[in-house]
Q: What sequence folds into this?
């Protein structure tokens, strides 16, 4: 059926151009051989010489906590086949107990009835004490705060087994699924005749399955020919990893094309148990406790192309890996435009990027600023220009390419409304408003006392206001990009004054007096009718003395007064026809 997954075939799969092909990759299987002297003859006690294998296996468990584990025990041919079959099963169980810190799983081997292995006793006690650096049972009891009677009873052995198991620092993941199986004397590592002891055949294999344990083990394993399942597990294994000798060290030296060290490069060992490191100031990353198997070593650093090498790591070896990183660089082309798409020459463009890369340039007549070669990686770009708001952008430079980045600058403009009012906050029309600042201008207030200055450059402004009949006013405003500023200027009316021309005044009693009064009235238009009314207030009485009509000149009016009595007794105010007092 079209679209169905098909198994991955050895040597590859064939397909038809234009037709989707889904390949099902089978789950991986790995084989771990725990090498070295693990067991004495006819025993399932894990010797101290085998603890290196256990410690190394702990790294595998940490890297693959969900993996399915099958522990397979083996025996040599120094005994009957049926006996060796059961012995191999006990060896697998003993390893599982050790990996799981199952103390009771080991204590049962001290009890009669656990066929077919030899019972554990003082020999195993002494081997554990020796590995722990303790000389006797009594010394161990004193160290652990137990009853120091020198007898290895159940309580003492429980504490002894616990400490021995704790030597490997292994923690079985809760998610790990573990099964055991024994293959007896079948499937030997080294073929021998019957009755021959062989350390390399007294061993444990661990098969690791990414999915299910397939095929599942057949218990018990048929003897003497063994089980077909073991052959399938072994053939399916992607690789065999030997644990038992010392772990290895991989020393990665990273340099650039000129041979200079590259510090701070990330180093990764890709394999069944991956490892990571980072180069120091000398360009060296030393990765220790490496499982002996195949790896591909990668070195990466921003601004460089990555490099890799495939290696095989022998047990206990120090493997040097030299890697050269090629500088990864490209070109960054920045184009600056305004909001309408017009190119902006003379703009300042600044960039910052990998490894402290920083530079700045001015755009040419085409609004272009080119940076390169620059290290590959992510960049921050800032563009500034007179009368424009600062613009920002980002771009990623890839090796051997030109990366275009367009920065659009918005004009640094805003709106300003000026309101002109009198002292009572009443709007004043016909006021002349003048702006001084980034966008100078002038206009006259409308019937609402307002005047607008749209789309002017942002910045600080000084406002001057003039209107007939009022004293000059002033204010300030700050216009922000895209903002709408408002300023209100209140005007104070200009006072009007009237004065007598005293030179013509006659004050002699009974003599007619003549006088002239001049009105100073800023803002008074010419040709306006003005009525001067003079009143008096005296012991003889009060009232209107004289009334004179006149026509104004610009900003003033003058009225002559003649043949009226005792002007020295006359007092203000003078009232205009319009009724405005002063």
A:
């Amino acid at each position: 059926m079209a679209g169905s997954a098909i198994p991955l075939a050895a040597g590859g799969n064939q397909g038809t151009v234009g037709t989707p092909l889904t390949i099902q990759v089978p789950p991986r299987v790995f084989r771990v051989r725990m090498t070295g002297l693990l067991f004495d003859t006819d025993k399932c006690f894990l010797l101290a010489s085998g603890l290196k294998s256990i410690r190394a296996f702990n790294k595998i468990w940490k890297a693959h906590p969900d993996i399915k584990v099958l522990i397979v025990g083996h025996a040599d041919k120094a005994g009957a086949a049926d006996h060796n079959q059961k012995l191999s099963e006990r060896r697998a169980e003993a390893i599982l107990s050790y990996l799981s810190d199952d103390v009771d799983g080991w204590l049962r081997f001290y009890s009669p009835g656990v066929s077919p292995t030899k019972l554990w006793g003082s020999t195993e006690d002494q081997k554990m004490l020796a590995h722990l650096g303790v000389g006797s049972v009594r010394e161990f009891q004193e160290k652990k705060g137990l009853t120091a009677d020198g007898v290895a009873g159940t309580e003492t052995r429980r504490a002894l087994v616990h400490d021995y198991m704790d030597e490997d620092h292994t923690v079985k993941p809760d998610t790990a699924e573990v099964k055991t199986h024994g293959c007896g004397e079948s499937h030997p590592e080294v073929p021998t005749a019957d009755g021959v002891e062989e350390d390399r055949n007294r061993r444990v294999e661990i098969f690791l399955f990414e999915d299910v344990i397939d095929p599942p083990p057949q218990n018990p394993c048929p003897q003497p020919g063994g089980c077909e399942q073991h052959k399938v597990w072994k053939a399916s294994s992607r690789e065999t990893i030997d644990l038992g000798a010392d772990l290895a060290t991989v020393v990665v030296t990273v340099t650039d094309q000129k041979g200079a060290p590259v510090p701070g490069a990330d180093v990764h060992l890709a394999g069944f148990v991956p490892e990571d490191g980072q180069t120091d100031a000398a360009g060296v990353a030393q990765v220790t406790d490496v499982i002996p198997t195949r790896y591909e070593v990668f070195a990466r650093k921003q601004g460089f192309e990555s490099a890799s090498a495939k290696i095989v790591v022998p047990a206990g070896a120090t493997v040097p890996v030299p890697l050269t990183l090629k500088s990864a660089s490209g070109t960054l082309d920045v184009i600056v435009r305004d909001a309408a798409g017009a190119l902006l020459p003379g703009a300042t463009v600044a960039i910052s990027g990998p490894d402290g890369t920083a530079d700045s340039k001015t755009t040419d007549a085409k609004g272009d600023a080119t940076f390169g070669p620059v290290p590959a990686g992510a960049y921050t770009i800032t563009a500034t220009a007179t009368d424009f708001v600062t613009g920002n952008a980002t771009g990623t430079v890839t090796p051997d390419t030109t990366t275009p980045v367009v920065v659009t600058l918005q004009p640094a403009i805003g709106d300003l409304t000026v309101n002109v009012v009198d002292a009572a906050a009443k709007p004043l029309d016909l006021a002349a408003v003048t702006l001084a600042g980034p966008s100078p201008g002038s206009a006259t207030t409308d019937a609402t006392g307002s005047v607008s200055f749209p789309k002017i450059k942002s910045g600080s402004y000084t406002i001057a206001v003039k209107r007939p009949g009022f004293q000059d006013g002033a204010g300030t405003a700050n216009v922000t990009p895209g903002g709408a500023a408002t300023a209100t200027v209140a005007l104070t009316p200009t006072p009007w004054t009237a004065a007598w021309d005293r030179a013509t005044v006659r004050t002699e009693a009974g003599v007619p007096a003549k006088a002239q009064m001049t009105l100073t009235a800023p803002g008074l238009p010419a040709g306006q009718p003005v009525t001067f009314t003079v009143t008096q207030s005296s012991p003889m009485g009060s009232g209107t003395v004289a009334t004179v009509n006149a026509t104004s000149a610009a900003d003033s009016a003058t009225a002559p007064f003649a043949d009226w009595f005792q002007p020295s007794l006359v007092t203000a105010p003078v009232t205009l026809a319009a009724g405005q007092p002063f």
Remarks:
- The first helix runs from residue 51 to 63.
- The helical segments are 51-63, 81-99, 103-107, 122-132, 137-144, 154-165, 228-236.
- The two ends are 107 Å apart (CA to CA).
- Residues 54 and 168 are 6 Å apart (CA to CA).
